[in-house]
Amino acid sequence: MPTELQIATHRKAQSAAKSVLDRLLEAITPNDTERSIATKAHEMLSELGYPETWYYHCPALVLLGSRSCLSVSGKDYQASNERVGSVNLVTIDLSPTDEQIWGDCARSFAIENGKVTTTPRSLEFKNGMLFLQQLQQQMLRIARPELSFGQLFDWANVRIRESGFVNLDYRNNVGHSIAISREERQFIQTNNAIALGDAPFFSFEPFVRLKGGNWGFKHEDIFFFNQAGLLEKL
Predict the structure, then answer these.
(1) Tens digits of per-residue pLDDT, 193-210?
(2) Phi, psi at residue 108, to the nearest 5°?
(3) Which of 109, 118, 143, 131 is nearest to 233 (CA)?
(4) ∠ CA(186), CA(187), CA(188), 5° rounding?
């Protein structure tokens, strides 16, 4: 379990990421592209004191339009110049760092009539976002320190399949531990026997598409176990 200092420092980085995502709700326009949105996000993170990223050289991984369902490593990511337009889904994944302190937060934004909306009319937009919110709420209730990364993966994947969705992640996982180097991450993937409680923090970030659908949805937060052994969101 993390110390109070670890919680405070990681929460500061995560709060910066959340703040930028909130600001981008009003900043995305129909003429924006993955490249311009990533630039805006990095500038906002820098203003908050987080110009660096732990995720290779990719402080903001943005996917939209024809690349909505693309799963790609930050090592290989190249932002496109495809425009947002009138109707779209924009997924933004931020990874600020301050030395060994990581933030990791992602959201998918529905675009209708050229603007971000938190109450989309599209049924596919509604279903994708609601499913991920419900999955996270359920995970908060069932996760315990002794549960393994592999068991959490199996639980999540069953619910993804039973709910009519497909796991899009290129590693076929749904999150990872928050470490001090990329190489030390433990992934929430099948057969990983390490207990969740052995990691001070971990992210939960299913990346899914409705079977037969056109859009890829992601909702990511960081979690930790408190002194009572209950899971909390950072």
Answers:
(1) 999 999 999 999 999 999
(2) -105, 130
(3) 143
(4) 130
Please indicate, yes or no, whether the overall pTM of this predicted structure exceeds 0.85: yes
CA angle 5, 1, 98 (to 5 degrees): 40
Q: Would you say domain 4-233 falls under CATH 3.90.230.10?
A: yes
Tokens of 149: 């990364």
> Per the structure block, which two tokens stand in for 7?
């919680």
pLDDT tens, 160-176?
A: 999 999 999 988 899 99
Q: Which amino acid is at 141?
A: R
The label of the residue with tokens 């933004």 reads 92
Cβ neighbours, 10 Å, residue 15: 15
Q: Report angle CA 175, 25, 57 to the nearest 5 degrees.
A: 50
